[in-house]
């Protein structure tokens, strides 16, 4: 078998066999296939795409390229949640405690921030003492004892994806549905869960800018899951505005705690209940409608709030953070207001630029080696559809000495659009793919 022949076959629109896909992926991981041939192979997929069967095989081969997590020793149906990345997306911090309090085990591996989107691991690490590196024994023990553990991804989890993604990033082959879906779902399959709830973001702050693109990706991921005997549902969610009000690590933990107390923003609370309900439904806790009520009850009764306290304590964090977050979380006291440049309704927010502005303040990374400042970020005071007067505060920047406040302010200025006409309301939940 030769890489040349496989590249030619896909370039000409042919369907690849399992053996051919294994030859390319495994050969590349071992260093037997050079970058230039793998680049050509990826470009052929970019233009010719993969069908459902090819996607499933490609995903499985990548998932089998390194370590796999075996969750079979943990009782119950394990349901994982994945977000395709957004601005202000701190859902794991609320959804995890909700479903764990309802008897659904949460054994989750999460990522760090890169680009304009935040990372769950960075948010959790803003809690003093919180450990996201647990031994396998500690990870399993926490899930068995309290129903929840969240850790960073292991170094040898899906090495094929790490190597291939770096090449895609350098060869303009990132945004192809089969490659995106296989990248995401290979990590999910290696993570060992029985099913997945996929939060697919749509809009200016998402990687998928249109509902058509997001639906195509959602269908591809759900299809891959089902082809491997896994349960899956995708929730298409609005990312034309930041989720909730807070963007930045400690700020988002603060908002998650307030939401667990029942004081969260309406859009964020609704999304958390929706995702929790689908997770519980896939875990066979009842119909979707029954699970919505279970999730609401977990919030209203304080069960989810207490589960978050337990979760923080068991992973080494200071449990007093749930009662005194503003005192314990690293938060700057230097605040710069951003005011409306004109009168009018807010008709558009370029959410990606909000995420980038937060990075310029120090809340994110430009490269994997960058250090995050947990104390900084942005609070969105006014959102889409709100009427504002010129000079009225519409956002607050939480800044430090190292923040590039001026660049962040310019990005905020570019982000907001105003009009005398009130825009049409867009719901947080845009669709479901099953």
Structural account:
This protein is of the alpha/beta class and 434 residues long. The protein has three domains: 3-48, Transferase, Pyrimidine Nucleoside Phosphorylase, Chain A, domain 3; 79-322, Pyrimidine Nucleoside Phosphorylase, Chain A, domain 2 (3-Layer(aba) Sandwich), CATH 3.40.1030.10; 330-419, Alpha-Beta Complex (Aldehyde Oxidoreductase, domain 3). Helices cover 46% and strands 15% of the residues. The protein contains 17 helices and 13 strands. It has helices spanning 3-11, 18-30, 35-48, 52-63, 92-101, 120-125, 136-146, 159-170, 177-190, 211-227, 249-260, 266-282, 288-301, 303-314, 325-328, 351-361, 405-415, and strands at residues 79-83, 106-110, 148-152, 195-202, 231-238, 246-247, 335-339, 344-349, 377-380, 387-388, 393-398, 416-419, 429-433. A four-stranded mixed β-sheet has the order 1-4-5-13, with helices on both faces. A four-stranded antiparallel β-sheet has the order 6-9-11-7, with helices on both faces. The protein has a three-stranded antiparallel β-sheet with strand order 10-8-12. Helix 10 (211-227) links the parallel strand 4 and strand 5 (231-238). The longest helix has 17 residues, at 211-227. It is globular, with a radius of gyration of 22 Å. It starts with a helix and ends with a strand. The model has no long low-confidence stretch (mean pLDDT 94). It catalyses: thymidine + phosphate = 2-deoxy-alpha-D-ribose 1-phosphate + thymine; uridine + phosphate = alpha-D-ribose 1-phosphate + uracil; 2'-deoxyuridine + phosphate = 2-deoxy-alpha-D-ribose 1-phosphate + uracil. It is an enzyme of class 2 (transferase). Homodimer.
């Amino acid at each position: 078998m030769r890489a040349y022949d496989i590249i030619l076959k896909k370039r000409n629109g042919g369907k690849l066999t399992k053996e051919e896909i294994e030859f390319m992926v495994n050969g590349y991981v071992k260093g037997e296939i050079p970058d230039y041939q793998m680049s050509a192979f990826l470009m052929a997929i970019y233009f010719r795409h993969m069908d459902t069967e090819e996607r499933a095989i490609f995903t499985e081969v990548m998932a089998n390229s390194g370590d796999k997590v075996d969750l079979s020793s943990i009782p119950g149906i394990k349901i994982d949640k994945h977000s395709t990345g957004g601005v202000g997306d701190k859902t794991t911090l609320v959804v995890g405690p909700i479903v764990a309090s309802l008897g659904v085990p949460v054994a989750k591996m999460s990522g760090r921030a890169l680009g304009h989107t935040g990372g769950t691991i960075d948010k959790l690490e803003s809690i003093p003492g919180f450990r996201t590196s647990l031994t396998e024994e500690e990870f399993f023990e926490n899930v068995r004892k309290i129903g929840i553990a969240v850790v960073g991804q292991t170094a040898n989890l899906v090495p094929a994806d790490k190597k291939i993604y770096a090449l895609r990033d350098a060869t303009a082959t990132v945004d192809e549905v089969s490659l995106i879906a296989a990248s995401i779902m290979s990590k999910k399959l290696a993570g060992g869960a029985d099913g997945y709830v996929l939060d697919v973001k749509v809009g200016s702050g998402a990687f998928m800018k249109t509902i058509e693109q997001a639906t195509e990706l959602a269908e591809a991921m759900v299809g891959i899951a089902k082809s491997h005997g896994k349960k899956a549902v995708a929730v298409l969610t609005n990312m034309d505005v930041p989720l909730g009000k807070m963007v930045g690590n400690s700020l988002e933990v603060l908002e998650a705690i307030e939401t667990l107390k029942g004081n969260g923003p309406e859009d964020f609370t609704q999304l958390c209940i929706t995702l929790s309900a689908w997770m519980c439904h896939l875990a066979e806790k009842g119909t979707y409608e029954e699970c919505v009520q279970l999730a609401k009850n977990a919030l209203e009764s304080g069960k989810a709030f207490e589960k978050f306290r337990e979760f923080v304590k068991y992973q080494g964090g200071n449990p007093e953070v749930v009662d005194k977050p503003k005192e314990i979380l690293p938060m700057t006291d230097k605040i710069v207001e951003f005011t409306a440049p004109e009168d009018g309704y807010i008709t558009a927010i370029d959410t990606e630029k909000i995420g980038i502005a937060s990075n310029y303040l120090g809340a994110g990374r430009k490269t994997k080696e960058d250090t995050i400042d947990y104390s900084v970020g942005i609070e969105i005071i006014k959102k889409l559809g709100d009427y504002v007067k010129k000079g009225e505060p519409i956002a607050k920047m939480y800044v430090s000495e190292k923040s590039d406040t001026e660049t962040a302010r310019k990005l905020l200025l570019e982000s907001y659009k105003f009009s005398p006409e009130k825009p049409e309301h867009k719901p947080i939940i845009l669709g479901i793919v099953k």
